[in-house]
Amino acid sequence: MSRLVVVGVQWGDEGKGKMTDFLGQKADVVVRYQGGNNAGHTITFGGNKYALQSIPSGIFNPHIKNVMANGMVINPKAALAELEGLKSRGVTDFQLFVSDRAAVIMPYHMMLDGAYETAKGGKKIGTTQKGIGPAYCDKYSRIGIRIGDLIDKDYFAERLHDALAVKNMELKMLGMETLEFEPLYKEYLAYGEQLKPYICDTAILLNEEAEKDSKILFEGAQGVMLCIENGTYPFVTSSSPTAAGVPIGTGLAPRYIDKALGICKAYTTRVGAGPFPTELDGELAHYIRERGHEYGTVTGRPRRVGYLDMVALRHACRISGINYLSVMLFDVLSGLEAIKICTAYELDGKQIDYVPSTLSKLERCKPVYIEMPGWKEEVTSVRNFEELPQNAKNYLHKIEELTKTEIVVVSVGPDRTQTIRRKEIF
Ligand code: IMP
Questions:
Q1: Which end of the chain is more exposed for a tag (fewer CB within 10 A), N or C?
Q2: Burial class (CB in 10 A: 0-12, 13-18, 19+), 129
Q3: Structural domains counted in the chain
Q4: Is 270 found in the same domain as 255?
Q5: Full-prediction pTM beyond 0.85?
Q6: 16 lines ligand 1 (CB under 6 A)
Q7: Is the same domain home to 190 and 206?
Q8: At residue 21, does pLDDT exceed 90?
């Protein structure tokens, strides 16, 4: 198999960075196809920890072509700072390609992200405040600036004039300071100049790579439950992290996509607001949060934690056509007497096995659980599935049974080496 999509099948933060890095050792190309610097992909190797936000996870390997594709929203200032940060830590030999069609996150997008949230009062989405939603809005309203515009002086001036005419009206209405053309124009032209060596038509590059049968890994950000189309709307992000997002977000023909690997935690987490039927609180939540270091990579917020939700997981696997699963942070669950798995929801006295589309219904859903015995042993040094405690194996087999999907990788710690590989898939 040559083209694999790595998809988060929960509410993001599943450990996609580690898996992309792990599988990416064999990739020719690693591609980010949606989202922006709202993502936080953590990679740990050789005693070093890196938190990537918009740069693809293959950046550490000089042989890998890293692509920031057209479906992304890119904050040029943040992306350049991220690159500088990597260079200062010795990551200097890399290949990076930035799509000329990717959307630019402008300062007014971040201002508006904050203003919209404030206006929502108690109904805040809890966005990362990186301007993601407003940048995607402008793209679809056709007043967005694209990365390629930043290296075309006259055209950029025209686009920025047009965008500012609308955006300044909006900022004024919201009681915010308006922005002047000249300083913004100069600043973003300078970013364009710095990004120029990386900017190209990445759709051509990707289709050529696919024709050569190169190994391409697509690195989804966030997770299916945060998908604008299929997630817990409106508490979602503004792009589609599903495998279906790949052709649109890259310009690579759908026929080239071979398989999708779903990444899930051994439990569930969510940052930001929105329904979370299996959410836990108290001592158990604290135990999982501390063992799993469940604090946001981007915002530092404590993540909400809960039991594994099979209804949501099945929904995500169905929508993304998940072929295999990788279970992350498995070591976190050691030491628990018993572990529950949500297998269905109870909605208004009836049992259902699907995720309702409306928020009001989802908020009324109560989890229906099965309980499985836990295991005491730490598993961080286990490298072979058969050596896991029997109850740990039973838990994993139950996930396979309930999702009808084979688990090919079990992660037992943050380091690249702390990985149980059951099957080669890439
Ligand atoms: P936005 O993507 O910043 O607009 O935020 C929308 C929702 O998606 C919020 O609940 C965020 O917390 C969530 N979100 C965005 N990016 C990530 C991520 O990488 N991991 C987990 N949650 C995310």
A1: N
A2: middle
A3: 3
A4: no
A5: yes
A6: no
A7: no
A8: no
